[in-house]
Design a protein that fits this description.
By secondary structure, the chain is an alpha/beta fold. Helix content is 51%, strand content 11%. It contains 13 helices and nine strands. It has helices at residues 49-52, 65-70, 98-102, 105-112, 116-130, 132-146, 163-175, 179-188, 190-206, 211-218, 222-236, 239-246, 251-261, and strands at residues 5-6, 16-17, 22-24, 27-29, 34-37, 58-61, 80-83, 153-156, 262-263. The strands form two sheets. Strands 1-2-5-8-6-7 form a six-stranded mixed sheet, with helices on one face. The chain has a three-stranded antiparallel sheet with strand order 3-4-9. Helix 6 packs across helix 13 (251-261).
Length: 265
């Protein structure tokens, strides 16, 4: 099953092109217009030729204010930054504290130990669907992706798995991807995320951190996506209700997304 294509960059982790993902009936996502990644704090805009070649016009940062302050983006040349803070209403949740938790095994155990990690991550995914702040952020992301003048667009969070994963899932479903395709694409980033966080995990374990807790913090797991999909289905009866009543995305934006991002036979 076709998933987002990895782009080998020297200074950006988990960089992928959504282009080429199958949407059914011979339709695919247009290539070279939508990219996802981890944070850009390590980007070398002058020397990372792979990133420079993408011609990114807009970077959408889905992180919280604290994350942006601790690790500010370095932008590709001639691009602009657009902030769409998904978890601004809930800045203390685990995905927004990923690197700080890995840096402090004692705090990680206090916050997530005793089997709490799985439920807290699932609850965060529900918040990404149900909170007004998250809805505003994802609406802004979709409006940006729909603007031909803003593309190519690169959207990201910290490791490129949770907030970025749901952004990609919603966009792909709007474009017509079946849930099986969305699920495969969501899970496909797991090796890249684990590789990106491997140095922090190694220090976490050397400091006495629980290996199972490190796995819970860093791995991309299917029930995380299930929590978001279930919240969408329970509150709004599926994608259409979520987009219309939850995100309040105008029909004109949906039309521009489908016209601009889908290749038809």
């Amino acid at each position: 099953m076709q998933t987002a294509r990895p782009v080998t960059a020297s200074t950006v982790v988990n960089l992928r092109d959504l282009g080429g993902i199958a949407l059914g009936r011979d339709r695919r996502v247009r290539q070279n217009v939508l990219f996802r990644s981890g944070q850009l704090s390590g980007l070398d805009p002058e020397n990372d030729r792979a990133v420079a070649a993408l011609g990114i016009r807009t970077v959408v940062d889905l992180r919280t204010a604290d994350e942006r302050r601790w690790a500010p983006d370095r932008l590709p040349r001639r691009s602009r930054l657009f902030v769409a803070d998904v978890l601004g209403d809930h800045p203390g949740v685990a995905p927004a504290r990923l690197r700080s938790l890995l840096a402090d095994p004692v705090e990680a155990e206090r916050a997530l130990g005793g089997g709490r990690a799985e439920e807290l991550f699932a609850e965060t995914y529900r918040k990404m669907v149900l909170s007004p702040g998250a809805a505003a952020a994802y609406r802004a992301f979709l409006e940006t992706a729909a603007d031909a003048r803003a593309r190519p667009v690169l959207f990201h969070c910290t490791a490129g798995e949770d907030r970025t994963g749901w952004a990609a899932a919603v966009l792909l479903m709007i474009l017509g991807a079946p849930r099986a395709t969305v699920r495969a694409d969501f899970l496909r980033v797991d090796p890249a995320v684990r590789a990106a966080l491997a140095p922090q995990v190694a220090r976490f374990l050397e400091g006495g951190g629980d290996p199972s807790l490190a796995a819970a913090i860093t791995e991309v797991r299917p029930h995380h996506l299930d929590a978001a999909l279930d919240a969408m289905d329970e509150r709004w009866g599926g994608l259409d209700g979520y987009v219309r009543d939850g995100l309040r995305v105008p029909d004109s934006v949906l039309e521009r997304l489908r016209d601009g991002l889908v290749i038809r036979p």
